[in-house]
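Researcher: Quick one. two chains, 228 residues in total.
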Amino acid sequence: EPEVTQTPSHQVTQMGQEVILRCVPISNHLYFYWYRQILGQKVEFLVSFYNNEISEKSEIFDDQFSVERPDGSNFTLKIRSTKLEDSAMYFCASGRAISGNTIYFGEGSWLTVV
Amino acid sequence: SQQGEEDPQALSIQEGENATMNCSYKTSINNLQWYRQNSGRGLVHLILIRSNEREKHSGRLRVTLDTSKKSSSLLITASRAADTASYFCATDKAGYSSASKIIFGSGTRLSIRP
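Model:
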């Protein structure tokens, strides 16, 4: 069964460093998302992406964040200058259609900022 | 806020019993979805119910939706130890036509006692 894959599964980074989290969405999906989950808290929406541009973003998704679909398969989240509070699990998700939009999630990338 | 809120926050039952979790939301929706998350893992899609549907079944899962009360319930029958997880409802907003985000509630932590 097709699935969303994410790399790395876990990354430890120094505060102030740049991090790129990578995702390979399900191949025939057109809609892509990033969510994050701080330990023990709820899953928070960061950004949605369609037709090579951001559709919607939350207030969390400020100037230190960016997304890119550099080729036909990858979807990346870049955090420019990490802060301690960026430590969280980051989930990539993809969906095929708007109507009845089931979104499928990857296993997540656990980011620890020290 | 569109967010769903689950009730109860935590539920502990004996194996074999039924588990019922509830979700309430605030705005009109297109769809409501339920996801499961095992500790430290990704979000697994369980079931989607559209705003014009009232009830849906999938194996041991039964979901109801009452749009007049802006609420949904997830029933897991004949619970098993493997059902131990957090369960989240997620809603998307009516009227959106692009890559609309889904918003998660805070989840119910379900524990099944052997």
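Chain B has a mean pLDDT of 90.
Researcher: Thanks, that's what I needed.
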